[in-house]
Design a protein that fits this description.
Blueprint (H helix, E strand, L loop, with lengths): L2 E2 L4 E4 L3 E9 L6 E9 L11 E2 L11 E8 L3 E9 L9 E9 L10 E6 L4 E6 L8 E10 L2 E11 L2 H8 L22 H4 L27 E6 L2 E5 L8 E7 L5 E6 L5 E8 L5 E6 L7 E6 L3 E7 L5 E2 L5 E4 L2 E5 L4 E7 L8 E8 L10 E7 L2 E7 L4 E5 L5 E8 L6 H6 L1 E5 L2 E6 L7 E6 L10 E5 L5 E6 H4 L2 E6 L6 E7 L3 E8 L10 E4 L2 E5 L4 E7 L8 E8 L3 E7 L7 E5 L6 E8 L4 E7 L10 E5 L2 E5 L4 E7 L3 E6 L5 E5 L6 E3 L2 E7 L2 E7 L1
Parallel strand pairs: 1-10, 21-23
Antiparallel strand pairs: 2-12, 3-7, 3-9, 4-5, 4-8, 6-7, 8-11, 9-10, 11-12, 13-20, 14-19, 15-18, 15-20, 16-17, 16-19, 22-29, 23-28, 24-27, 24-29, 25-26, 25-28, 30-37, 31-36, 32-35, 32-37, 33-34, 33-36, 38-45, 39-44, 40-43, 40-45, 41-42, 41-44, 46-53, 47-52, 48-51, 48-53, 49-50, 49-52
């Protein structure tokens, strides 16, 4: 154990670390809330997402998590988890901060910070001995130095609370603080004070507090035994979230365990088996407004236990073997899990394996089904980063699970090479190789399905997401535009079960569109002409192939639809919006096997409105006469947009029948069926 004093620093392993802010358990002492701040080279957060605390327990990158409170015999600890290889390159420091509720840090007994490596070794311990009237505190920081990570004991306090501390590091606090934040202690230290002095501090009497399970709070197990039919009732309060229900029986009679609803009637089945001497586990969501009650139907001896999630058998590097239903925890990085099932006694039993991620444990219906087979099987299934639960819901036979974690890729590799690679669900930050200019993104999701289970969403600084790439619209590989507004970086969230690559390319690699062009799949073309019309045609003969084309302009970052074929092969005429002074891209969205043809057309190619102009689906029409009333008649959902001189849809006419007053206009019609435009003087 390395003991350090205020101002000292020590190297830490570049891997997964757990950080505990500890205090002695003394009645009446202030409550301590712990948070982490991710700072860039300027010493500020980049947005609200860079503050991790109990109400925002995970950073979008997955590099920092708030785990909650650990309760020891005479100690309490608030725990954070840091995955240093996943810290984004723009983040230079990770601060460990805390605030006091109902007192000051001078009244917190035994305040200390410990850093624990993945193997359980305590790599740094810092006792805070000079706290006084502060209500917010930075205990320490992890910082980059020459490609490695170090920890420094900071010991800086604020009398203005967490709001004052947060403001100093760039977080906008909604309610103004009456007094300006006043640092009570200075962070400046001499070179002599920074020198490691691990042996100069006597060993602390602190007893390590176990970290809370990241899957749920612990509680005292409840066990009830009986013979014959019976009812199990857990009258003590259970913490929020699911619990493990374990059943043990003797004999080979039919066992049926069901939860009871508020009317004391059967609700959900927990176990239904005839296995001899059955021993199994299941995941159950207790009701929040009443005790958990279960009906047991069995003719012999039985024992039912209600256990916390920490009782789940851990899946580590060694093969885990079981028989029948079970609940297994996995806390490692994303991995391939090898699954073997012997098929049961009759070799045709049903085997189901589900994956429940920690953030969705409040809804057990939201899970990924990894296996659903009958008979003997041997499969490999991917799982994302833990913590998560693997639940064998069926499987009246012997099974094996073996986790093979995937290599942790260096996130800085993408910055150097432009190729960002990964596997499974991840949130990453793409860096613009030429800030101020757009870039192309060549994406590839080998083995993924072209449906809504494959998607990449843009994530802003507040954690809000916008749709960008989906397999249904753009296929599993192709090219798209990113940084259309010239921004320097963009966080994206990838949802994909397999491997993936996002490769940044210069915009010049997009072919120049000067006349008719043909291709297949999703791609990007550069267009340097004036605003024009474009005929979009799907030339492949597949059924229900989706094809759409869009115009996107830099530096405005806006896009406007040109046309959507809606799975039809008929040519569709649409407008290409071009904003003077910018750069226009024409993007095609289609599955990789969908063939298409684009052909620029003059404005005069759009038909002129008459007294009654019929049409269908997407199209462009012109009104060249005096001001008149327009009535829109459609057999399906229809919208009509009035275009400006650059062919941008600046005015939307609603889907009602009108009438609308229009003068000299170009109109873009978008409909899911046939339509008619009526012009009245």
């Amino acid at each position: 154990m390395t003991h350090i004093v205020k101002g000292a620093n020590t190297p830490v392993p570049t891997g997964s670390l757990r950080v505990a802010v500890c205090r002695r358990k003394v009645p009446g002492s202030p409550v301590v809330d712990v948070s982490a701040l991710l700072l860039d080279a300027t010493g500020k957060v980049r947005g609200d997402a860079d503050l991790v605390f109990h109400n925002q327990p995970a950073h979008p990158s997955g590099a920092v998590r708030h785990l909650g409170t650990g309760d020891g015999v005479d100690q309490l600890a608030e725990w954070l988890e840091l995955d240093l290889p996943r810290v984004e390159p723009a983040v230079q420091r990770v601060l460990v901060a805390a605030s006091c509720d109902g007192g000051t840090f001078g009244a917190v007994p035994g305040l200390a910070l410990q850093t624990v490596a993945g193997d359980g070794t305590i790599v740094a311990h810092y006792d805070v001995t000079d706290a006084a009237g502060e209500t917010a505190f930075v205990l320490g920081e992890f910082y980059r130095r020459n490609g490695a990570w170090k920890f420094r004991a900071v010991g800086q306090g604020w009398e203005s609370g967490l709001a004052g501390l947060a403001t100093d590091f760039g977080i906008v606090v909604e309610e103004p603080v009456a007094a300006a934040p006043v640092p009570v202690m200075q962070t400046e230290v001499t070179k002599a004070a920074v020198a490691p002095i691990a042996d100069a501090v006597p060993p602390s009497a602190y007893t390590p507090v176990p970290a809370p399970t990241p899957l749920g709070a612990d509680f005292r197990p409840h066990t009830q035994s009986g013979r014959g039919n019976g009812v199990v009732s857990v009258d003590v309060p259970l913490p929020p979230g699911p619990v493990i229900v374990e059943a043990r029986v003797r004999g080979d009679e039919w066992l049926l365990v069901e939860t009871l609803n508020r009317r004391n009637k059967d609700e959900d089945t927990v176990f239904n088996t005839t296995l001899r001497d059955f021993h199994g586990r299941a995941l159950v969501q207790p009701p929040r407004d009443r005790p958990l009650r279960m009906k047991v139907s069995y003719e012999d001896d039985w024992t039912i236990s209600v256990l916390p999630l920490s009782a789940a058998r851990p899946l580590g590097p060694q093969t885990l073997t079981g028989r029948g239903p079970d609940v297994v925890s996995y806390t490692g990085t994303m991995a391939d899990v090898k699954v073997r099932f012997d098929g049961g006694a009759d070799r045709d039993e049903w085997f189901v394996l589900n994956c429940h991620e920690a953030e969705h444990l409040d809804d057990l219906d939201e899970h990924d089904m990894l296996c659903n087979e009958t008979g003997k099987l041997k499969q490999t299934v991917p799982v994302p980063d833990g913590p998560l639960l693997l639940v064998v819901e069926h499987g009246d036979g012997t099974w094996e699970l073996t986790a093979k974690p995937l290599p942790v890729r260096d996130p800085s590799t993408g910055v150097k090479t432009g190729a960002y690679e990964g596997r499974g669900d991840r949130t990453i930050t793409l860096r613009n190789p030429r800030p101020g200019r757009p870039a192309l993104v060549q994406y590839d999701f080998p083995g993924a399905k072209a449906d809504y289970s494959l998607e990449v969403k843009l994530v802003d600084e507040y954690g809000d997401e916008d749709e960008w790439l989906t397999g249904r619209q753009r296929g599993t590989r192709g090219t798209a535009v990113l940084f259309a507004d010239g921004r320097a970086e963009q966080a994206v969230r990838v949802t994909c079960a397999g491997d993936w690559t996002l490769r940044l390319l210069p915009e010049e690699q997009a072919p120049l569109l000067t006349g008719p062009a043909e291709g297949r799949g999703s791609t990007v073309l550069r267009y340097q002409g004036p605003p024009t019309l474009m005929t979009v045609t799907r030339t492949s003969r597949g059924n229900d192939e989706h094809l759409s084309a869009w115009s996107l302009n830099h530096p405005y970052g806006k896009s406007a639809m040109i046309a959507d074929t809606l799975g039809r092969r008929r040519p569709t005429l649409g407008p290409v919006w071009v904003d003077p002074g910018g750069t226009c891209f024409v993007t095609v969205r289609a599955a990789e096997d969908t063939k298409w043809r684009l052909e620029p057309a003059p404005i005069g190619a759009a038909p002129v409105l008459g007294a009654r102009t019929p049409g269908g689906w997407y199209g462009v029409v012109r009104h060249t006469g005096p001001e008149a009333e327009l009535v829109v008649v459609g057999t399906a959902m229809i919208h009509v947009f009035e275009l400006d001189e650059n062919l941008f849809p600046h005015r939307k006419l609603t889907a009602s029948s009108g009438p609308y007053r229009i003068s000299d206009s170009i109109l873009h019609v978008r409909c899911l069926g046939e339509w008619t435009l009526e012009l009245r003087p």
